[in-house]
């Protein structure tokens, strides 16, 4: 009868051990949360993150249904799969939240961000900034004798890459909107 013995501290792999296993790997997830567009809702969502020590990497909010008075909050956050599951469950329990979608696990997404990048410089640096802006399809939205302000839309990685190239050329200021994201296809 003692054919199967477990060492002290080991776990059994029986049918009674129904606890799911999660990885310790930190992952980035994009969450889309549909909420009532009313005062205090954003504060409650943000409070959930800050109260539990979760970080928000990107946050965008806008009304998406004027007649139904609903807004969509797009949040980019990082955590272990277990932490992400906790965040989604806790968001779903907030009363004015109507829907929580984890776009990262639901399939392919389209993600875009808008950035305004001010580059100050002259001479060759100015010419190089314009050349790189053309490669990245950045649009000049303001120009003075000593600076350019570029408008760039794309993935966060594209904006990061452009900003890094502009640093040695005189990057003076950077403003970003945060990620706006949708699932691809008909869903």
Structural account:
It catalyses: 2 pyruvate + H(+) = (2S)-2-acetolactate + CO2. GO terms for molecular function: acetolactate synthase activity; acetolactate synthase regulator activity. Keywords: Amino-acid biosynthesis, Branched-chain amino acid biosynthesis, Transferase. With 187 residues, the protein is an alpha+beta fold. It has two domains: 80 residues, ACT domain (Alpha-Beta Plaits, 2-Layer Sandwich); 75 residues, Alpha-Beta Plaits. The protein is 27% helix and 38% strand. It contains five helices and nine strands; from the N terminus they run E-H-E-E-H-E-H-E-H-E-E-H-E-E. Strand 6 and strand 7 form a beta hairpin. Helix 4 packs antiparallel against helix 5. 18% of the residues are buried. The N terminus is likely disordered.
Compact description:
With 187 residues, the protein is of the alpha+beta class. The protein contains five helices and nine strands; from the N terminus they run βαββαβαβαββαββ. Catalyzes the conversion of 2 pyruvate molecules into acetolactate in the first common step of the biosynthetic pathway of the branched-amino acids such as leucine, isoleucine, and valine.
